[in-house]
Design brief:
The chain is an alpha/beta fold. The chain has a single domain, classed as 3-Layer(aba) Sandwich (Rossmann fold). Helix content is 44%, strand content 16%. The chain contains nine helices and eight strands. Strands 1, 2, 3, 4, 5, 6, 7 and 8 form an eight-stranded mixed β-sheet that branches. Strand 1, helix 2 and strand 2 form a beta-alpha-beta unit. Helix 2 packs across helix 8, helix 4 packs across helix 6 and helix 8 crosses helix 9. The longest helix is centred in the N-terminal third of the chain and has 25 residues. The chain is globular, with a radius of gyration of 19 Å. About 5% of the residues have low confidence.
Length: 279
């Protein structure tokens, strides 16, 4: 079969997929949602902040129930020889709670799976998919936010990011079919749930199809990022629980310079899709 003939045969499916994606863009305006349940999956405590704290702040302010599921305890990312994994995990948990408080998400809406940092890809993959499927069936979200598995950084560099991205997608698909993990329906009375909309973050510029204006909450996002003290120098090399004023100003300025801008506005970029699993 020639390449041309293959493309011709694939054309109807590609057109349907494009139509679903366009339909999702037209029907779903993330920042305008109200009274919905939003479930965001993040590999580490901080990725939710850096990727989309502005969008999460807008969602929380509009009365949506935002739940954050964090795969790992992020207990390895320190150069400080005096730091231990146990202590760092406690620090990162407190920082995540402080960060979420800034954007209006209470600590009880943060859910920890507590895998060790860098080890997620070595977890039992079936058990991990079942665990996240149960979470989706429990919360029955209107929108799932998760890492885009197609971005270069995710595909080639970050092990926890790769696993979190692919496992979440596997669980989204499994959650809608009753024959996947039927024990959840039998024993836990959790019916299948089809996620209506998926919004992927950490997207490449060419894949982004939706942008949320965060001009009004940019300073809130920077303050939320500042709560993650241990993720930045000088605390990575020698931990300190607070900021020197000059270091804090330098950090915020650096984040502003790296922030995505579109049409003169600060934005957070997503790839929004709906109906994808059936294609």
């Amino acid at each position: 079969m020639t390449i041309l003939s293959r493309l011709i045969r694939m054309a109807p499916a590609l057109l349907v997929l494009a139509a679903f994606t366009l339909n999702a863009q037209q029907q779903v305006q993330l920042e305008k949602l109200t009274n919905k349940t939003v479930l965001i999956f993040t590999p580490h405590p901080d990725d939710d902040t850096f990727c989309c704290a502005g969008t999460l702040a807008l969602l929380a302010k509009a009365g949506n129930k935002v739940h954050i599921v964090i795969y790992t305890n992020d207990d390895k990312g320190s150069y400080d020889p005096a730091m231990t994994s146990e202590r760092l995990a406690r620090i990162r948990m407190k920082e995540e709670e402080d960060s979420c408080k800034v954007i209006g998400i209470p600590a009880q809406n943060i859910h920890w799976l507590e895998y060790h940092d860098g080890m997620l890809e070595y977890a039992n993959t079936r058990d991990l998919a079942e665990e996240v499927t149960k979470i989706i069936r429990t919360f029955r979200p209107d929108v799932v936010l998760t890492i885009d598995p197609g971005s270069e950084y995710v595909r080639w560099h970050k092990t926890d990011h790769r696993m979190a991205a692919n496992n979440t997608l596997d669980a989204v698909r499994a959650a809608e079919w009753h024959l996947y993990f039927p024990n959840q329906q039998l024993h836990d009375h959790l019916d299948p749930w089809k996620v209506p909309v998926e919004a992927f973050y950490y997207v490449t510029a060419k894949d982004a199809n939706y942008w949320v204006n965060i001009d009004d909450v940019l300073e809130m996002k920077l303050n939320a990022a500042a709560a993650h003290v241990s993720q930045f120098e000088p605390s990575i090399t020698k931990y300190r629980p607070d900021w020197d004023a000059k270091d804090l100003e330098k950090m915020k300025d650096g984040l502003k310079k790296r922030a995505v801008k579109k049409d003169g506005h600060y934005v957070e970029a997503f790839r929004v899709a709906a109906g994808f699993n059936q294609q």
